[in-house]
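Review form for a predicted model. The reviewer records the input and the model, then writes brief findings.
Reviewer: anonymous (R2)
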Amino acid sequence: MSRTPWRVGGAQLRGRREVQADAFVVGGDRATGRIAVAVTDGIGDTVAAVEAARLAAQESVTATLTATPEFGCMTARDRLAASENTADASIVTALFDPDHSRIQIAWAGLCRAYLLTSDGQLQRATYDHSLGDRIREHTARQGPLAPYDRMVTRTVAHHEFVTTSVPEHTTVAFLFCTDGISAGVTDQTITAALLCDDPDKGADLLTGEVGDHSPDNAAAVVLRRTS
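Model under review:
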C-alpha cells in the first residue's frame, strides 16, 4: 500500500457478551494504493452471528477493492445468502482510492462512520437505520428511544444499502465503528482518538473507554492521514 497516504489501526472487545459478534477487515492493493475497510456487527449473541459478521466483512472488503463499497456490500449479501446462515449483521464499508478526490462509503444498520476535518471538526458521515430514528423522523419525539434505537431496519441481508462520499483533501482522520463504540463514548473521546498520531492507539483509546464491562461488543477502525 505504498501509494496510500493513510495509516490504519483497529481494536475490538467482547464486553459482557458470550461471543464477539463484531468484526472488522482492512484490505489493500499495493499496485493501486486502494484501501478498503469494513466493520460489521452481527445481530445476536450467537456463533451464527459471529460467522455472519466475519463473512460479510471479508467479502465486502474483497469486492470493494475491485469496484465500490456498494458493490462490496451487495457481494457480502450474496455470499451470506449462499452460505445458508440465517443470522444477519449491520455493516459499514469504505473505499480510499488515491486516484479519486472523495472517500466512498456504503452502510446498513447501526455501524457508523465519523470523520475529523482539517480544521478539527468532528462530523458523522452516516446515520443509523433503526426504528428509533424512524420514529424521531416522523414524530415530534426527541432523544433516546430505548429499546427502539437498537431495532435495526436495514441490514446486510435486508433492504437497500445507503451510499455517500466525503472529500478526501479536507479530512485528516476517520473512524468506522459498531454501536458498542458510538453508544459507549462521547464525541470528545472520538475526537481525541482521531487526533492520535498512531491510529492503533486511537482505536485502543476508544475500546478502553468503553471497557470490558460493556453490555455490548465493540469494534473500531481508525485511519489517520500521513501527509
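Findings: The two ends are 14 Å apart (CA to CA).
Further findings: The chain has a mean pLDDT of 96.
Recommendation: see findings above.
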